[in-house]
Amino acid sequence: MAWQPRRLTTEQLEERRLEAARLLESGRYTQAEVARELGVSPSTACEWARRLEEAGVAGLKSRARSGRPSKLTAAQWLDVKAVVEAGAKTAGFATERWTLKRVAQVIQRRYGVHYHPNYLAEPLHRLGLSVQRPKPKARERDEALVEAWLKRDWPRIKRGLHAEGQSLPAWTRRVVRFGPGQVLPGLP
Question: Do residues 95 and 89 touch, judged by C-beta distance below 8 A?
Fold first, then answer.
């Protein structure tokens, strides 16, 4: 039996506790063996055995979660995810950059529910959305000119340096390794 993932759902955690109860009640396993078998600490197995003795199998079942329930339903959260994935401009913002403040504004407009922006990071992460930071680019940058330089001039410069027996400067090696279009740390 392999109960080794890093994060288990509440259902999986309950299933593991109930399996421990089954193993302990069989009388064939010690608490230490149950702990090894289920991938928990001996103190956890000891706690489970105590709860099993005091309250039976019901003592190992999941309890209702405490805390305030979400103001949005699961379907509404999925709708928020769809709005975020569609883009900030589609949602009526001037740029494509999503911020937690903007997500809070969308929720307020669509559902009339106020969420503090600091709270939204965790629910959005549970939806599979993560922090995205755009790569900075100079406004004056001309992609066609950069591409032409890399195709026409850069190979000529490299050949010239190699012909003279000189090695490439360190910053150019990073450019060559990462390729065009990459933003390199420490370079203007």
Answer: yes
Residue whose entry in the numeric block shows the structure tokens 């593991």: 16
Contact 60, 51 (CB under 8 A): yes
pTM of the model: 0.47
- How far is it, in rounded angstroms, from Cα 31 to Cα 79? 47
In a domain? residue 187: no
Distance CA 81, CA 127 (A): 7
Residue 120 domain boundaries:
74-126
Q: What are phi and psi of 128, to 5 degrees?
A: 95, 10
Per-residue pLDDT of the chain (188 residues; tens, 9 = 90+): 555 566 778 888 899 999 999 999 999 999 999 999 998 999 999 999 999 999 998 888 888 777 888 899 999 999 999 999 999 999 999 988 899 999 999 999 999 999 999 989 989 988 888 877 767 778 888 889 988 988 888 888 888 877 888 777 776 665 544 455 555 455 44
∠ CA 153-154-156, nearest 5°, is 65
Q: Is residue 69 in some structural domain?
A: no
Identify whether 92 is part of a domain.
Answer: yes
CA-to-CA distance for 34 and 41, rounded, in angstroms? 9
Number of separate domains in the chain: 3
Domain assignment of residue 138, yes or no: no
